């Protein structure tokens, strides 16, 4: 009995020591940085992550940022994703930080996010590796815009997605309801996959990558708890599946020998500076960089354009005028887009 009691006592002491260590490690930065901005660290381990992740309207800062900015100012301290964090909602400060990246400031993400992004991601690596991948990203943008088929690819994908709405839309009474934001995400994803991997929206492998990528995005900004079934764990697993799929595409392209599709994967394969793991990470970074930002912008433009019947009519009139001067099966050209003066103002 004495031995059992001693074991229980030892277990309790260890548990209390762990809890004390957790609490101290959470609040110690508050004591060691008295000159840090005002703010709150919230609960040990959880911090304020759950409040930060609470969904909010895209055209608002959300209750977390609005509340903290009103209480502590536009720059405040917090504890997010298990990491002490300085949050800035100040436009001038953010601009200054971005202008001085790799000089006065260094880009980084909380360590739990590294588990999802991977150690070779452009968002994680620093120094020369980061510069090399950033230059590669600029090369992707430049080479894509120079491709003669670029605008045609975009138009084909847009027509494919709009065509898929017929007969597949949810019904609300007699009115068909289209989840446009989801369609915009699918459009952005399809364009990137086409330019980087040469895959069309109707290919099965595209749908497979999209399904895993949606799980990846859902867990990317979630509480970093790796327990089977949590969004974070699903995101890590989804990234592994995407990596396996892209590695398979790379091997298939290599086995094809001199056969080239004219996509950016050809450029990646010709590079001897990057390992296959870094090439796979670059593909994922390309999807991540354009997926949410582009789709959100498209959705917001359509949302606000729908609020103004006059602006919508002027945009439609401009597009129909340009379309009337085109042949039936001809794609829009760069010159056609340059003629869309009113559309450019709306965007």
Automatic annotation (TrEMBL):
Q: Tell me which UniProt keywords the record has, alphabetically.
A: Iron, Metal-binding
Q: Which GO terms describe its biological process?
A: brassinosteroid biosynthetic process; brassinosteroid homeostasis; sterol metabolic process
Q: Which GO terms describe its molecular function?
A: heme binding; iron ion binding; monooxygenase activity; oxidoreductase activity, acting on paired donors, with incorporation or reduction of molecular oxygen
* Pfam families for this protein: p450
Tagged with keyword Metal-binding: yes
Which InterPro entries does its entry note?
Answer: Cyt_P450 (IPR001128)
Q: Per the record's keyword annotation, is Metal-binding included, yes or no?
A: yes
Protein name per the record:
Cytochrome P450 724B1
């Amino acid at each position: 009995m004495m031995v059992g009691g001693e074991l229980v006592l030892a277990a309790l002491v260890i548990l209390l020591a762990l809890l004390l260590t957790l609490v101290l490690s959470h609040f110690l930065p508050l004591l060691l940085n008295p000159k840090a901005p005002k703010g709150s660290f919230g609960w040990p381990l959880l911090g304020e992550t759950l409040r930060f992740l609470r969904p909010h309207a895209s055209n608002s800062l959300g209750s977390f940022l609005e509340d903290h900015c009103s209480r502590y100012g536009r720059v405040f301290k917090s504890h997010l994703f298990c990491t002490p964090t300085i949050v800035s909602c100040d436009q001038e400060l953010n601009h200054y930080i971005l202008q001085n990246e790799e000089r006065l400031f260094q880009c980084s993400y909380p360590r739990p996010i590294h588990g999802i992004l991977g150690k070779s991601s452009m968002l994680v690596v620093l120094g020369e590796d980061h510069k090399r991948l950033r230059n590669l990203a600029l090369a992707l943008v430049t080479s894509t815009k120079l491709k003669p088929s670029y605008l045609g690819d975009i138009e084909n994908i847009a027509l494919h997605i709009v065509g898929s709405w017929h007969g597949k839309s949810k019904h609300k009474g007699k009115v068909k309801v289209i989840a446009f934001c989801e369609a915009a995400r699918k459009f952005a994803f399809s364009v990137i996959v086409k330019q980087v991997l040469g895959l069309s929206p109707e290919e099965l492998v595209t749908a497979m990558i999209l399904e895993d990528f949606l799980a990846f995005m859902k867990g990317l900004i979630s509480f970093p708890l790796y327990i089977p079934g949590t969004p974070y764990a699903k995101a890590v697993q989804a990234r592994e599946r995407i990596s396996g799929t892209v590695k398979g595409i790379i091997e298939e392209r290599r086995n094809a020998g001199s056969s080239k599709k004219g996509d950016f994967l050809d450029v990646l394969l010709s590079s001897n500076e990057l390992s296959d793991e870094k090439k796979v990470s670059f593909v994922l970074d390309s999807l991540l960089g354009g997926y949410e930002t582009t789709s959100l912008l498209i959705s917001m433009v359509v949302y606000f354009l729908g609020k103004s019947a006059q602006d919508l009519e002027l945009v439609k009139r401009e597009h129909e005028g340009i379309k009337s001067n085109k042949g039936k099966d001809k794609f829009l050209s760069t010159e056609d887009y340059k003629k869309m003066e009113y559309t450019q103002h709306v965007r």
